[in-house]
Amino acid sequence: MELKIRKNGENYIIDVNGEMDLYNSYKLKELVMKMLEKKVERFIINLENVDYIDSSGIGALIYICSTIKKMNLKLIITNIHGSVKKVIELTKLMGYFPITNSIEEAIQQMEE
Amino acid sequence: MADKTYLSDIKEIRVDENSPLFDKTGMLYKEFNSDYRQIRYYTLLIVQSAPMEIKEINLLEQQISEVIKNAVKHGNRSNPAKKVRVWYSFDLDHAHLIVEDEGEGFKDLEKWNEFNRKRLECLANQDFEKLAEFVSFRTTKSDENDGGNALFAALEYWDGGFVFNSKRNAVAMLKKFPHKKH
Lengths: 112, 182
Prior knowledge:
With 112 residues, chain A is of the alpha/beta class. Chain A has four helices and five strands. In chain A, helix 1 (25-37) packs parallel to helix 2 (55-70).
């Protein structure tokens, strides 16, 4: 799994590439925690290039989401598709996570 | 009455030693050492015998990986001397698995069912604030890499049943794939 950060205005987009599984999902959690230490306030997690997620990956997203919610900061998860979407649906978390279909939509929602 | 109907719809993990899902007749078999680093590899060895049509990209693989992980990590505590035994059978209509470990059994099964019942209540009430308390099932033995959500998805995915034996160290599961009629 590879993580890249890019900036769009005040928004920090994290592009996740690869598989979010039991061996590497902690990396995303660690990255977001580091960014929080550096006072980043708006996160967009882009899962466009993620085709596999397991319960550890979902767990990492839950941890990130609940931490950011508690701090009253902003998070949007975007471009969820294929089996990643199915696993989130099976876990019934589609309503729990803040989700958009595209990065553009995410940026727009950040402004609201 | 409405409430009773609602409760009867709630899925839960069952314990039933005599479930037909534990019938191993005609099933293939593999056994593995409890090596945490090999979990996805073990899963691939099993899932490779499934027809493409039921793999649903990699959903079947992902679901099998979760039960093998539970056996290796939570059952056998990643003790390499302890074995995980897997019986499996796949065709276009079904995926059937039995996964057994050498651990002391899933002691928190009742707690898990109670936790899941509360989670489903939050979902039924669309109470996403309260749901935050029920997104991840933790025990004293959970670590930071445990998502605590694998069995929620498992109960939904294995729609033909997800049943433990009396000792609770073996779980049998069935997924049905309805044929599309042309």
